[in-house]
Amino acid sequence: MVRNALGAVLALAGATAAVWSPFRAWNDGRHGRDYRIEDLFNGITDVKASLVGSLLLPFVFAAVVVLIAVFLRSRFLVALAGLVVLGFTVLWMVRQGQAADGIAVNADGSGLGMGVASAAGGGVLMLLAAVVMNGRGRRPRRPRKDAPAPYDHEGATYEPPPQVPTMDGERPGQ
């Protein structure tokens, strides 16, 4: 129970960081909400994106998946959301590196910004939450009323051992 609560807190913190990241500077002061999703697949351009068509969309999707996952206590869904966030962040970094002939963090504040770090950190927090969570408990299975007889290791049905007659010809227990 404690592990699920700690995992839920980590997952929600990661989702919050991921959703907040497009509102911070990603590269040379340009915010993540200014990058179009199409730019990730066709190459980075200077065209500004609408808020719905920006990097915010996959991060909001991942945050909704995290909310559902916390409610269902699903480790798989939390990990999936973390992979979505990290995947889009890495894809953006690759495309930005191609467009600018490399990416760097410079001392003067140019280059990669805190938005990228926030998105990557949020994705890592979600993956960490998936590791920490117990997930849903497994319920013990009850035997069915119409279940077949138990089997031994060779596949034959179980039969009790035969009773050996005693010296006086009677079987024990009679």
Please characterize this protein's 3D structure:
There is one protein chain. This protein is mainly α and 174 residues long. The chain has one domain (2-132). Helix content is 49%, strand content 3%. The protein has 5 helices and 2 strands. Strands 1-2 form a two-stranded antiparallel sheet. Helix 1 runs antiparallel to helix 5 (114-132) and helix 3 (56-72) runs antiparallel to helix 4. It starts with a helix and ends in a 42-residue tail after the last helix.
Summarize the model shown.
The chain is an all-alpha fold and 174 residues long. The chain has helices spanning 2-20, 37-42, 56-72, 75-99, 114-132, and strands spanning 25-27, 30-31. Helices cover 49% and strands 3% of the residues.
Shape: rod-shaped
Category from helices, strands and their pairing = mainly alpha
Please mark out the parts with pLDDT under 50 across 5 or more consecutive residues, or reply none. none
Order of helices and strands: HEEHHHH
The gyration radius over C-alpha positions equals 29 Å
> How are the strands of the biggest sheet laid out side by side?
1-2
What does the main sheet amount to? 2 strands, antiparallel
Strand residue percentage: under 5%
Number of DSSP-assigned strands: 2
Share of helix among residues? 40-55%
* Euclidean distance between termini CA atoms: 54 Å
- Please state the average pLDDT score: 84
Total domains: 1
Tally of separate helices: 5
